Amino acid sequence: MDRPCNCKCNKINIFPPEHRATICVYQEHSLQCPKQQSLVIRSAEYGHIGISECIEVDTGHFGCKVDVASVLESRCSGKTSCSISVSDESIRELNPCRKGLDVFIQLTYLCIDAKPLLPCQPQMVTSKLSYISSRQTSVGSCNSQAHIGGTQFFFKTTPGQQLQFSMLRLSTSSTSSGRHNHTATQVGYIVDEGQDEVYPIELSHRRHPMHPLLKSTSNEVTVSLLATEHQHFLILVQAFGCQDLKPPKKDTMLIERHGDTTVVSCKNSKKMWNLKCIGVHWSGVIGNCSDASQPVVRAVVNVAAANLALPKDIILMTIVGLTVVLALVIVTVGYVCYKRSMENIGMEPLLDVSEYNKAPALPTKRGSTLLRGTLHRQSLAAEAPVPPPLRNNPQDLNNATIRLNHPQTVNLL
Q1: 126 and 83 share a domain?
Q2: In the chain, what is the straight-line distance between the N-terminal and C-terminal CA atoms, in Å?
Q3: What range defines the domain where residue 70 resides?
Q4: ∠16-20-25 over CA atoms, to 5°?
Q5: In a domain, 127, yes or no
Q6: Does some domain include residue 368?
Q7: What residues does the SUEL-type lectin domain cover (predicted)?
Q8: Is residue 402 assigned to a domain?
Q9: Residue 42 and residue 17: Cα distance in Å, rounded?
Q10: Which phi and psi (to 5°) does residue 396 adopt?
Q11: CB neighbours (10 Å) of residue 277?
């Protein structure tokens, strides 16, 4: 039931470069990987192995050694750097050689651009590559009542995405005989929770050290690894595809997904956009459905397109003529009001009272032409009449009267 990954998986296509190190007794060596990469122990042996930089002469006792890869991986796996010392007590107690023989550690390790995952707890997986190691089966089963044996790993990604798995085989040798080298060994299971189907994980030496395993149909997968001896491998896992789009809070859009394509449309209009999933991102442009002015714009366009009762030139000239007439009326009314206001504030001519300042004419006796000198002097000494007060209304000037303040006595001869 092994279902191959028929997609273009974003995986490690080239086997990572291998690094070697030899650590002599009473030495300490630091393993170092570039940033953002994880250190993985591929193989490690401890003992009186052979000619090396630690031993120059063969005394006939080469060959005593023990595998300490699991011990070193528990200290260094997933780290960027790690220090190893042959004099470490946990390593020296594994010495398989006679006393007096010089022992050392000979190891190989990889630096992979991935992060380690822990068993027995749900973990979110992203497009960033992650891995689990076959040496993690030493922790035992997470649930003794589980329907499948081994050590369980629970993976989950965002809705709409799937999980893809690949195997990186790290074992350099096999304990099987030559006639069994081409047989597949079952080392675990992959459970696709979406379909509730179980797919075996098989380790085959016929395949390339790096090969795909499975592409899930759901975003939740459980992996179970069985304990193996002398078989070391990594299960690489990462998310692929695009996550489901969520409609906005105003709920003005409709989103329909069909595999790697999504159609986004508006509820209140016929607007529509098509998106395509490329890698883990949607490619395309989404507009705005909240523009409520579209029906108003259509109504304005329809009115402008309707036939007019009169030609546009005649309508324009009529408007200009009415504007000119209205302007002339406004100017004329303003000028008349201005003239009247100027007359009301005292611009009319003043009353001429010079005649009232003259001495009154002397009466004469009928038939007499002479006046006495005293009469003439008295008339000169008489007070001049006081002019009447000015009136505001010019029409009252015709009815003006003159009143003398002092009566004047005239003596006639």
Answers
A1: no
A2: 167
A3: 18-114
A4: 150
A5: yes
A6: no
A7: 31-111
A8: no
A9: 11
A10: -80, -5
A11: 20
**292-333 per-position pLDDT tens digit:** 444 433 333 343 444 555 677 788 888 888 898 888 889 888
Q: Do 162 and 275 reside in the same domain of the chain?
A: no
Give me the amino acid identity at 63: G
**Of 386, 378, 388, nearest in space to 408 by CA:** 378
Instruction: Report the relative pairing of strands 261-266 and 220-225 from DSSP bridges.
Output: unpaired
pTM (two decimals): 0.60
Could you give the number of structural domains in the chain? 3
Tokens for 249, please give them: 């809070």
Phi, psi of 356 (to 5 degrees): -80, -15
**Spatial CA neighbour of 135 closest among 211, 201, 66, 187:** 187
Instruction: Quote the tokens at residue 86.
Output: 């042959």
CATH number at residue 29: 2.60.120.740
Q: Are 39 and 111 in contact (CB under 8 A)?
A: yes
C-alpha closest to that of 387 among 403, 408, 406: 403
Determine the Cα–Cα distance for residues 262 and 400; give it in Å rounded to an integer: 104
Assess if residue 64 is contained within a domain: yes
pLDDT at residue 372 greater than cutoff 60 = no
What Cα–Cα distance (Å) separates residue 198 from each residue in 116, 224, 276, 352?
A: 23, 10, 31, 130
Tokens of 304: 């402008």
Residues 124 and 234 in one domain: yes
Judge if 80 and 108 occupy the same domain. Answer: yes
Retrieve residue 295's tokens. 């029906």
Closest CA to 401 of 381, 383, 386, 379: 386
Q: Please tell me the distance from the alpha carbon of residue 409 to that of residue 205, in angstroms, as a whole number.
A: 162
